[in-house]
Amino acid sequence: MELFSVIVAAAAAYAFGAVWYMKWAKQWIAASGVPVDASGKPANASAMPFVISGIAMLIVAGMMRHVFQMGGIETVGAGLMSGLGLGAFVALPWIVTNYAYSDRPRSLTYIDGGYAVIGCTIIGTVLALF
């Protein structure tokens, strides 16, 4: 059941990411500096970023499940708050630090940081459901 919960939690965060980045696509493309084609879509049409992000979500969900098990996090409320805490106080500060040193636009920090916080919250909530 643990592997299934990790897969479902990762899929939920991945699906949320698809919606999140579709909503913020134009702003993200502008802030990230990704080259675009004549239609305004990213020039690199490779599927590799999607594969990598799927694997990354599995790794994050797997580690969060381990942390939750070690910490005795079992209720949905505890899962939600723990996921929110990991996103807001581990993932987000790391993104902020990286983007500050690389002089990335603040809007990129908001978009990517928002996804990290909400994605971790979703993972934590889903993991606690199992």
Give the helix/strand class.
mainly alpha
The proportion of residues forming helix, as a percent range, comes to over 70%
Summed up, the domain count is 1
- Poorly predicted runs are none
Q: Helical region count?
A: 5
Oligomer: single chain
What is the average per-residue confidence, as pLDDT, rounded to a whole number? 95
Structural Rg = 16 Å
> How many strands, which pairing sense, and closed or not: the largest β-sheet?
none
First-to-last CA distance: 8 Å
Number of strands: 0
**Beta-strand content:** under 5%
Outline type: globular
Order of helices and strands: HHHHH
Question: How would you describe this structure to a colleague?
Answer:
The structure is a single chain. The protein has 130 residues and is an all-alpha fold. The protein has one domain (2-31, 47-129). Helix content is 80%, strand content 0%. It contains five helices and no strands. It has helices spanning 2-23, 25-32, 48-71, 76-101, 106-129. α4 packs antiparallel against α5 (106-129). It is globular, with a radius of gyration of 16 Å. 25% of the residues are buried. The model has no long low-confidence stretch (mean pLDDT 95).
Q: Can I get a quick summary?
A:
With 130 residues, the chain is mainly α.
Q: What descriptive keywords fit this protein?
A:
0% strand
Question: Secondary-structure blueprint of this entry?
Answer:
Elements: H1 2-23, H2 25-32, H3 48-71, H4 76-101, H5 106-129
Helix pairs in contact: 1-3, 1-5, 2-5, 3-5, 4-5
